[in-house]
Amino acid sequence: MQETVEEVLLHVQQAPQLGEALVRQVIVLRFLQAGGFDIWNPTEVVPEETNIGGRRPDFLVRVGEAFALEIKGMAVTLGASEIAQALSYALNEGVRWAILTNGRIWVLLDEHKNGKPHEREVLRLEMTFTQPQPFADDLDLLLNAAVWRAGQFEEALSELKARLGQRQQAQKVMAEKMPLVLRFQEENDIRTFSAALKLFAELSKITELEREILSGQVVVPSPEPLPEASVPSEIEFRGKMKTARAHVIYRPEAGTWTLQPGSTFLDRPSVWPSLEAEIQNFLDTGILVRQEGLLRLTAPLPCTSPSGAGNYVLRKAVNGWDFWKDAQGQLAQHYRKSRPAAERLGPHLRNGALAATQRKAGRAHDKLPVTAFPQAATV
Question: What's the pLDDT score for residue 201?
């Protein structure tokens, strides 16, 4: 899901005001596919089926525990009327849950909850350019096909709420306690932020948990990773689609995914001009050659992610973690590492987030620790 979110953000950056049709194509269908839904199965992801009221929701997703999915353009504010519309689709379908989205905002609604339409909002997630990782983690729970198929969405929702609650707490601590520690550091002429933070905690001015949050030690909950010791230095994965067959070497320490010579790619147009330009360059330089209706790779081709490698093979967006399989048939997802929340932002974003807090406290930037926490969603 992370790679899909990052790819979508690239498109949204180029066209920030997508209309409803493009939100469906560029964002929603790709997120559903990344979550494991079969978007090509019209009995699983049902488009615009007329209900008993004569209206047509954008999608009815029928897998175990079904839900209605209503889509709006990115410029549309998701207010009371839009929420009421999405809830009506859930009611007509006889299901509990509805999801309303404009591509950027994702709202989960509970039709069984009492109250006015806006009071039935359970949670709201927001996709941002500055913090894509926490949104991807949350969306991976919200749109997890395996969870919906097993009828375990309520359990997943509890986990998601706990995760969001922790982020809210971390954000509150950063906003309220960071200026106090910085002021304490300045007033007492303490050389380093870490020393000031340690002394501030010893004086019982903050709790131990708050100290860990401010020092960047708290990790936002995420799926259990494979134990570090069991991850080999190189893992070979294979992927196939139609007649294309490819294999890639993943080196966890370097974070590289290298497509191997002999791999074949689908020879079909891509909707991405940049990808088409790369493919043409590879053909011009002999890295790729046309052979029996496919493109054959003649030299190692390094990639920075499994999705990037998969995109070359399929000539379209793919969640690489769910595309590549090892020799035992396990998905690449099995080898994926989780990262502390502070590491999920680039260094300039981490520094920028704390620099804003620091400016409010009147301190110099070089006395801050490099850490930040994702913005909390509304629960």
Answer: 83
**Per-residue buried b or exposed e for 78-115, using 16+ beta carbons within 10 Å of the residue's own CB:** beeebbebbbbbbbbbebbbbbbbbbbbbbbbbbeeee
| CA distances, 369 to each of 140, 196, 279, 345 (Å) | 30, 11, 43, 14
Do 346 and 219 belong to one domain? yes
Q: What is the pLDDT at residue 127?
A: 85
Listed in sequence order, the residues at least 6 apart from 376 whose beta carbon sits closer than 8 Å to its beta carbon are 164, 167, 168, 170, 171
350 and 328 within one domain? no
pLDDT in tens, 125-157: 988 765 667 788 889 889 999 889 888 888 888
Tokens encoding 185:
């550091």
Q: What is the pLDDT of residues 199-234, one digit of tens each?
A: 888 888 888 878 777 665 544 444 444 344 456 788
Q: Are both 217 and 246 inside the same structural domain?
A: no
Q: Which two tokens stand for residue 218?
A: 């708290």
CA nearest 98: which of 121, 125, 76? 121
Which residues in the chain show pLDDT less than 50? 218-229, 338-379
User: What pLDDT sits at residue 97?
Assistant: 93
Query: How many domains, the chain?
Result: 3
Amino acid type, 59: F
Place of tokens 């010791």: 229
Please check whether residue 160 lies inside any domain of the structure: no
Q: What is the pLDDT of residue 358?
A: 42
In a 10 Å sphere around its CB, with 0-12 CB exposed, 13-18 middle and 19+ buried, how is residue 313 labelled?
A: buried
Q: How far apart are CA 204 and CA 224, in angstroms?
A: 33
Structure tokens at 56: 């047509």
Output the domain CATH number for residue 88.
Answer: 3.90.1570
Look-up of token digits 């269908």: 29
**Domain coverage including residue 146:** 2-151
The pLDDT of residue 250: 92
